[in-house]
Write a structure and sequence with these properties.
Layout: H1 4-19, E1 23-33, E2 38-44, E3 54-55, E4 57-60, H2 67-79, E5 87-92, E6 103-113, E7 126-130, H3 141-158, H4 172-183, H5 189-198, E8 202-208, E9 218-222, H6 224-230
Parallel strand pairs: 1-6
Antiparallel strand pairs: 1-2, 1-4, 2-3, 2-7, 5-6, 8-9
C-alpha cells in the first residue's frame, strides 16, 4: 500500500515535470548609429505565423549553456561579430508570446557604430531598420525593442556610453545628433553645448573638420581618463 509520503513525492515529481515543459531563449537588440539616426539590426522571421515580419536576433538556450554564452553565440552566428559588449535588460514571459509553446526569453542590448561594423554573414537577410519607423514586429519583439530603447535612454543620461558610437574626433554637432537620435528629442543647441563644455570632460583638439559642405566645426575627444577619476561623483547629464 502506497504511503501518503510516497504519494506526495510522486505528485511533486509530476508537477516538476510539468514545470519544465517550457523553453528559455535569448533575444539580442543590437542598436546602431550612423551619424543621425538610431537603428536596430533585424532579421526576417522564418515562421509562417509571422511571414514578412521582422524579428530580433535570437535562439533557444541550450541545456548546457549559460544565458550570456547563448547571447554571444547568437550574435556570432547571425552576424560574425564576437567583440561587442551586451547588457542583460529584462525577462519576457507572457504565456502566449511564442506560437510553438511556452518560451521565456531574456533580452540583451548592445551599441555599435554602423560605419565601424562590417557584418560578416550575408545569407540570413540582416537589415538595419530605423527604430523610430518600426511599427510592427514578430512575436512580442516590438515590446522588447521598446523596453531596451528605454533602458538605453536611461543609460545614456547617466553614463557616457554613447561616445563609443562617435569617431575618435567629433564635433559638438555630431555629439548633439547622437543624443537627439537616442533620446528621440530635439535639444536646444546653446544649452546642449553649454552643458557638455561645463562638465570639463571634452578635450579641445585645436583642430577643425575637413572637407565638409558647411563651416568647419571644432573637433573634440572625450576624456575617458578624467571620467574614470570622477565617475563616483558623476551625476549624469540633465538637459
Amino acid at each position: 500500500m502506497m504511503s501518503m509520503y510516497t504519494k506526495n513525492i510522486n505528485t511533486h515529481l509530476v508537477e516538476i515535470k510539468n514545470f519544465f515543459k517550457a523553453a528559455i531563449s535569448v533575444d539580442c537588440v543590437i542598436f546602431g548609429f550612423n551619424g543621425n539616426e538610431l537603428k536596430v539590426l533585424l532579421i526576417e522571421s522564418d515562421l509562417k505565423e509571422y511571414k514578412g515580419q521582422w524579428s530580433l536576433l535570437g535562439d533557444i538556450v541550450r541545456p548546457d549553456e549559460e544565458l550570456d554564452e547563448a547571447a554571444y553565440r547568437v550574435l556570432k552566428a547571425r552576424t560574425g561579430l564576437d567583440d561587442l559588449y551586451m547588457e542583460q535588460v529584462q525577462t519576457f514571459g507572457a504565456i502566449n508570446r511564442h506560437p510553438a509553446g511556452r518560451v521565456i526569453t531574456v533580452a540583451y542590448y548592445s551599441l555599435v557604430n554602423i560605419e565601424h561594423v562590417e557584418l560578416k554573414k550575408h545569407n540570413n537577410e540582416l537589415h538595419w531598420h530605423s527604430v523610430k519607423e518600426l511599427q510592427q514586429m514578430a512575436f512580442d519583439h516590438k515590446q522588447i525593442l521598446d523596453t531596451c530603447h528605454e533602458r538605453l535612454k536611461q543609460q545614456v543620461m547617466v553614463q557616457p556610453i554613447g561616445f563609443n558610437l562617435l569617431p575618435k574626433k567629433f564635433s559638438l554637432r555630431e555629439l548633439q545628433n547622437l543624443y537627439e537620435a537616442i533620446l528621440d528629442v530635439e535639444l536646444d543647441r546653446r544649452n546642449f553645448r553649454k552643458k557638455f563644455l561645463s562638465m570639463d570632460l571634452l578635450m579641445d583638439l585645436n583642430e577643425e573638420e575637413e572637407d565638409v559642405p558647411h563651416r568647419p566645426a571644432k573637433l573634440y575627444k572625450f576624456n575617458f581618463d578624467k571620467y574614470d577619476q570622477r565617475k563616483k561623483r558623476y551625476l549624469g547629464i540633465g538637459f
